Amino acid sequence: MTELFIDELKAATPKAKIKQKSGEHHISGLVGALADPIIVFPGGWGDTIPDWLKNAITLERLEVNMRELKGEEPTGTDAEACAYLYTAALTQPLDRDWGEIYLYVATRVYSRWGKSEMPQDIRVESMRDDQKADLNRLKRWLYQQRTKARIERDRTERRQKAEAAKAELEVMQPLMFDF
Questions:
Q1: Residue 71: Cβ-neighbour burial (10 angstroms; 0-12, 13-18, 19+)
Q2: pLDDT in tens, 89-133
Q3: Would you tell me how many other CB atoms lie within 10 Å of the CB of residue 166?
Q4: Contact criterion met (CB below 8 Å) for 90 and 80
Q5: How far is CA 69 from the centre of its chain?
Q6: How many Cβ atoms are within 10 Å of 79's Cβ, its own excluded?
Q7: Is 140 helix (H, G, I), strand (E, B) or coil?
Q8: Phi/psi at 114 (nearest 5 deg)?
Q9: Is the pLDDT of residue 22 over 80?
Q10: CB 60 within 8 A of CB 77
Q11: What angle do CA 139, 128, 118 make, to 5 degrees?
Q12: How far, in Å, are 12, 24, 48, 154, 170 from residue 179 at the CA level?
């Protein structure tokens, strides 16, 4: 099977204990649902994602965020998987399994968001268990990648603020000795 994404996930325990998460974590998740980047397959097709799909990604992320508040494990969404597989299909041919996964998730996303009806000859209503496992793995990976991007962005912002504060302090603080 063609590897469409780099699986950086470690073998997760089946039901890891859900830790009590802080209010800051919940706020970060909410901000992330609205502002995290859309993860696309490398190749330059990310700017072709339709606006309605971008909006669907945001709304589905908010839904996942609400489910996380109730204790469910967060994951990527069907719309995110659809966007990723859309850009992957434009970059390289998909094998049969990933093609069926893409058509399955596209069928779900199109029907959920009231877009034009999927043509009957490409509509996929069900998948095999191994395909479901691949889709779930892709969704976990997408969630991990966008969370990693958010953490890195926050870290960079904090570093820039600290550097600016240090530079301002150096300017304001008189030099006591000139060597």
A1: exposed
A2: 999 999 999 999 999 999 999 999 987 778 899 999 999 999 999
A3: 10
A4: no
A5: 18
A6: 26
A7: helix
A8: 65, 25
A9: no
A10: yes
A11: 75
A12: 58, 46, 58, 38, 16
The Cα–Cα gap between 80 and 103 comes to: 14
Contact (Cβ atoms closer than 8 angstroms) between residue 41 and residue 137:
no
Q: How far apart are CA 99 and CA 149, in angstroms?
A: 27
Which stretches within the chain are classed as H helix? 23-35, 51-69, 78-91, 96-112, 129-172
What is the C-alpha to C-alpha distance for residues 157 and 43, in angstroms, rounded to an integer? Answer: 27
Give dist(CA 53, CA 111) in Å, integer.
12
How many Cα atoms sit within 13 Å of 144 on the Cβ side? 13
Three-state SS at 134: helix
